[in-house]
UniProtKB/TrEMBL annotation:
Keyword terms, alphabetized: Amino-acid transport, Cell inner membrane, Cell membrane, Membrane, Transmembrane, Transmembrane helix, Transport
SUPFAM superfamilies hit by this protein: MetI-like
Localization terms from the record: Cell inner membrane; Cell membrane
Record domain ABC transmembrane type-1: where: 30-227
Protein name: Arginine ABC transporter permease protein ArtM
Primary location: membrane
Spans through the membrane: 33-54, 66-88, 108-127, 173-196, 208-227
Species the sequence originates in: Halomonas alkaliantarctica
Family the UniProt entry places it in: Belongs to the binding-protein-dependent transport system permease family. HisMQ subfamily.
Biological classification of the source: Bacteria, Pseudomonadati, Pseudomonadota, Gammaproteobacteria, Oceanospirillales
Amino acid sequence: MNAFMTWLENQLAENSIFTLQTLSYYGDGLTTTVQLVFLSLVIGLIAAVPLAIGRGSKHAWIKWPIFAYTYVFRGTPLLIQLYLIYYGVVFVDGIQETWLWVILEEPFVPALIAFTLNTAAYTTEIFRGAIKSTSKGEIEAARAYGMSPQQTMRRIIIPSAFRRALPAYGNEVIFMLHASAIASVVTIMDLTGAARFVYARFYAPFDAFLFVAAIYLCLTFTILYFFRYLEKKLLAHLQPQNS
């Protein structure tokens, strides 16, 4: 590791912008971006599954509140949601005297809440559509085997819906990665925040932002490759058979 750092330092010796210190800013920003996107996607996915099931409920008191939640969060910009949660939490009476303030005063937490609520709304609708498109034949076959509605949902509908939702969910993951660039507006030093810092220090917008664009591009193609691999494995039965 030391030999690599020495080699890298020698390669960057004549570069006034990209030094080891500058690259460490991008490294820290990359770590923050990956943590923010990964955590919001995992929590949002866990929340979206029961919400998607509830969204298709026959009971109005279950499905309409979920519909209102997804409608609001999909119909408003993520930046506005982030501002409301980050700046609005200060105005909640008495919150600064509770233990919650210790957590919420860190900008990472309000950003995580905003991103999670946003991606959970989109993911809920993605899975709701996938659940709704389950063929009647699969459900009737499950009933013929004597499965209860809960068993049918757990063993047949949910796994089948996961596979069908995979292409749309892959797009949602890429959308969240790109949307995470706005996290820097609430003082989070993510990838975009690191680029803004380098730009402000060296007044070199093209170098700073083209470098961070290349990092986002690499992350995007990595996610694309991962989901294409999953689709190839899990949706192989839907591919046309070679004669």
